[in-house]
Fold this sequence. Notes:
- By secondary structure, this protein is an alpha/beta fold.
- The chain has three domains: 5-100, 3-Layer(aba) Sandwich (Rossmann fold), CATH 3.40.50; 103-305, Mur-like, catalytic domain (UDP-N-acetylmuramoyl-L-alanine:D-glutamate ligase), CATH 3.40.1190; 316-452, Protein-Tyrosine Phosphatase, Chain A (Alpha-Beta Complex).
- The chain has helices at residues 18-30, 47-55, 87-95, 102-109, 123-136, 151-157, 170-174, 194-197, 200-208, 227-233, 278-293, 298-305, 335-344, 382-391, 403-412, 435-452; strands at 11-15, 34-39, 58-61, 75-78, 99-100, 114-118, 141-145, 163-167, 183-186, 219-223, 239-244, 253-255, 259-262, 265-269, 316-321, 324-328, 349-353, 372-377, 396-399, 419-422.
- It has a nine-stranded mixed sheet, sandwiched between helices.
- α3 (87-95) links the parallel β4 and β5 (99-100).
- Its EC number is 6.3.2.9.
- Pathway: Cell wall biogenesis; peptidoglycan biosynthesis.
Amino acid sequence: xxxxxxxxxxxVLVIGLAKSGFTAARILHQLGAFVTVxxxxxxxxxxxxxxxxxxxxTVICGRHPEDLLDEGFELVVKNPGIPYSNILIQAAxxxxxxxxxxxxxxxxxxxxxxxxITGSNGKTTTTTLLFHMLNQDKKKPLIAGNIGxxxxxxxxxxxxxxVIVTELSSFQLKGTESFRPHxxxxxxxxxxxxxYHGTLEDYRGSKMKIAxxxxxxxxxxxxxxxxxxxxxxxxxxxxxVPFTLKGRTDTSISxxxxxxxxxxxxxxxxxxxxxxxxHNLENILAxxxxxxxxxxxKETIIRVLTSFTGVKHRSQFVLNWNGxxxxxxxxxxxxxxxxxxxxxxxxxVILLAGGLERNHSLEELRxxxxxxxxxxxxxxxxxxxxxxxxxxGVEAVAKAGDMxxxxxxxxxxxxxxxxxxxxxxxxxxxxxxxxxxxxxxxIDAVQRVTETND
Length: 454
């Protein structure tokens, strides 16, 4: 870990603990910063705060004192999930205090270079796929970021021989200043998280920070099929690596209906790739390009693409029961992700959808609703989904109280050959703490229902 002199004796406020805040506070303390932690959870229920206090960190729990910013802090490090509307964040902005997420800290302390992956959809699949490619090529990759491993904790132990393959959300990127990945990837860019960012422009700007500090020594891999990203790329200083699904090109990476090409040469037949769905082709092209740029071999890439079946909670195959296939796509937290999932299943689909109400449009789903044989709705958006499904001509619509009920209703509407797909198109936080917990609830319910009916 690099000793960052600019943080020595700096007065830093860490807002929000969880995994990222706890790790950031601990590392800042090790670097010689004067750290104060503020978390809403009461101290007696907060083992992270208790551990930090034992280390000598100042801890304020159970409330966010409005006058806390009067104590002369020079830097705020916040948990990515805390909105900028938070009273302390607003106060810090008014005082001109820099606001970081722990991604910035990870970059400053890391002895290893970064590959950064972001996008509205496909981040997790691209990150995981790239990690497998580099790992099988013995490139000593480490995986970090929004995928579930705190980046600063990974960076703390990284060596110059490693490379940190990092999934990055807009929440994380918004709080960066000097972060500069050697390879940056944007898989795609759609409207999302406006409730957090306030405007589409702020969301897009946060995503695009992934490449803002890159130089001519770096690489920017982007979706050239999106005019917005192509226009942004034209302003970047990095070496541009566009990918396209619209046919073979002689430069960079591309795909047509039959093959994937690298610099115009055939790399692999699409029919041999295990990971299905048109949306996953974007992820495959981005990961493949990054692996090749990092020195990965074509042989290893082909081996991974012919064996990698996907990421848990992302179009994850669960089981085949009485001619019905169950898929867990709980990570689909917006309509575009669910549209991509429906596009990947051309047959009859029993769709389970619903969740946190963010007032997002469902219109992206309309062209594929003719594939939905029945819709099972749940959560805050249940009634709105039902109304939308009826408007699209879906006759069978049922409302479920919980995941067990949803799966039981889905099975009752299904027949041999149908796909039963959890792809909520909404965040989980109205009923579940995370999309992972929601997906696990679906898997458990599927196993219970199928075992009971065998």
